[in-house]
Design a protein that fits this description.
Helix content is about 40%, strand content about 15%. It is α/β, with parallel strands linked by helices. The protein has one domain: Rossmann fold, CATH 3.40.50. Helix 2 packs parallel to helix 3. The chain starts with a strand and ends with a helix.
Length: about 150
């Protein structure tokens, strides 16, 4: 089963983002998921202290390339896992990925605590299931992979 991971990147460092995707990918792969995530082949960004939301000139990271590839990965996925936990600013990219998943009738999992900057009727409704912390969503995915749900 394929799962797409999304998490806000703007304002965060390469190391912080890479650590999240490396750890989460390893955990989910161990459970049997095939993980798709936006940091694949983005090693050229290593050393970036603060990601910005647009304007990269590398051919694999132009505005169009980022949107097209992330959308393609959502289309390929069975599950879209959007982790907005403790986001400090709105991520238009993550909300778009959640919306694509919803429109495509994917199993959309939303991680978002009460009071999050993304708190909005649309965000709540686009998430098929909402978890208030990442640990609960990972536990759900473990049970789902083992047919315990």
């Amino acid at each position: 089963m394929k799962i797409y991971l999304a998490r806000p990147m703007t304002g965060r460092s390469y190391d912080e983002i890479a650590e999240y995707y490396t750890k989460t990918t390893a955990l989910l792969t161990e459970m049997g998921y095939e993980v798709l995530q936006p940091m694949v082949a983005k090693g050229f960004l290593k050393g970036t202290e603060k990601f910005h939301s647009f304007g990269y000139d590398n051919p694999t990271a132009t505005n169009h390339a980022i949107k097209a590839r992330d959308q393609w990965m959502v289309i390929q996925s069975d599950i879209v896992h959007v982790d907005l936990f403790k986001a400090t600013e709105i991520s238009i990219g993550c909300v778009s990925e959640l919306a694509w998943g919803d429109i495509l009738k994917k199993k959309t999992l939303l991680v978002m605590e009460d009071g999050n900057v993304h708190q909005h009727a649309f965000t709540f409704e686009m998430g098929m299931l909402r978890f208030k912390n990442p640990e609960d969503s990972i536990e759900y995915l473990r049970k789902f992979a083992n047919n315990e749900i």
